[in-house]
Amino acid sequence: MGVAASVKLLAAGAAWRLTGLPPAGNALVGALVDGAESEQTLAGILLVNAGDRSVPLVREATSSGAGAPELVDVLASIGTDTARSALERVAAATSGEMAAAAEQALATLDEIRRHEQ
Questions:
Q1: Rounded CA separation 13/15 (Å)
Q2: pLDDT digit string (tens) for 30-60?
Q3: For a Cys staple, 17 with which of 50, 51, 80, 101, CB 3.0–4.6 Å?
Q4: Which value, to the nearest 10 degrees, does the dihedral of the CA atoms of residues 18, 21, 23, 26 take?
Q5: Is the pLDDT of residue 62 over 80?
Q6: How far apart are CA 56 and CA 47, in angstroms?
Q7: Which residue ranges make up each domain of the chain?
């Protein structure tokens, strides 16, 4: 990923986190699903940094057929109750690799919760 692409993603991440502008969030999801590995990594970090603001957008992407397990990873990394609910919906509403990833993420979050108590 070149400097220009990095700057664009960082700008989209800042705009998404601060304002919730849909085009900025969509740019991050697009990079997460279709980008090169470095773009996916950066987009995922930026979505996670935005926290619960990203959950509806990521959940929508999973239900629209984007199907990238990276979307599940973002929800798991956010880890809030809102993200957990979205993971439960992904596990119930999808099949195959996406459902398996959501179920694994839920098991991991359960294990983390057990150790925190």
A1: 5
A2: 999 999 999 999 999 999 999 999 999 999 9
A3: 50
A4: 70
A5: yes
A6: 11
A7: 3-116
